[in-house]
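Lecture notes, unit on protein representations.

Consider one protein chain, 474 amino acids long.
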Amino acid sequence: MALLSPAGPLARIYGMAPAGVRNAFASAYGLKNDRLRYGGSFQRQLAGYRERDGWSRDRLAAWQEARLLALLRHAVANVPYYRRLHRQGDYPVEEVRTVEDLPKLPLLDKDAIRRNPEDFLATDPRSLHVLHTSGTTGTPLRLYRSTETIRGWYACFERRAREWEGVSRKDPYVLLGGQLVVPVETDRPPFWTWNAASRQLYMSVYHLAPQFMDACLDEIRRRKVVHMYGYASAMDALAAYALRTGRMDVRLRLATSNAEPLYDHQRERIAAAFSCTVRDTYGNSELSIGAFECGARRMHLSMEVAAVEVVDRVGRPRPAGEVGEFACTGLLNFDQVFIRYRMGDRGALRADESPCSCGRHSPSLAAIEGRQDDVLVTPDGRQVGRLDPVFKGGMHLVEAQIAQVAPDEIHVRVVPAAGWSPADAEAIAARLRDRVGPMAVKVIEVDGIPRTANGKFRAVVSEIDRRAAAGASP
């Protein structure tokens, strides 16, 4: 979704250009992206998503199964990595008849893709679009996809993230993301770019400082934005500022969280500040999973995007409702094929199979606990994921990060808000101990919490060797 500022030889010119020229750059880039994403087969693929939203679970499962079997046949015939394993007798795709049979195939680790991404290609890379991504770990991946794959993903997003909530790509929206669209040293507005072609106002998270927020809110209002999209932490920062200063003049229809966990206290603050619906989404750059929240607060998996398993560390299925590692088989991208891909995130499938009140029949996630490195490991080997309940109940803080700094020690870094007191620190420490047991907990006041290289906020981080934290547990 991001509007990238120009790279290479244009970057210096762009950085020195006046706002009008930067907006022209942004609009030209946006026009190019819109043609790529929304041209050709986009409308046909969008119609398919609309139709499948009304299908029964059995019909969706049959569609997904047919797509999966076609992908497996394609992989062993045309993709070097899988063809090689199949010829060695190590990839028994003939034994796979349903999604439930996928554990008969080996898991795919990210390191294998990182070492040789072209080994997973079925298509000449010169005909594909390439994406270089570092993710939250800072370790790069080189990803490929065709124009048809790109249009398929954007059709899915249009349907499930926008149309479900009564907005469309033609509505003006603001994107709060990690691209630097104005020089970082800029201290006077504009701190944004306006992409007229896409009706997109792009605001970098690097300029969402309190002294700039009035100007940002003014521009959102001036552009008549109806949809806010981006990092939950960035939307929450704007919302907190608006509530704190009484800036209640920005009204939205929808705020959509992407690429970071959305916590309940953030959801409530964003909804209160902007009088809007707040929805969560979940996906990755590899296009190996896609989930979208409905009005009943269920996170529905898009079965067209991937077949999703939840497994233990050796690839055995975990029962629905139990947390494990996601192993995802991407069904959108037949050009760079990822089967049973260990994407590094943990979560659980919903055990309750009762129909969703929203009327859709796709399966849903019961929990998303984030990256493996966003999980605390207690001295007895338990893995503890989402910890946002620790901060519920009117805590006087701007933001906080929980960091495991030793196998038996946790630091909570807190940016205090007005009214912060030792009682808040004591409450946080007590709630955390309730969840992790006899570990040392230290609450530390800080001025700010650094973002990752791409501007994301990590609420829970592990800063120790995983094997040391887990001790001798299997």
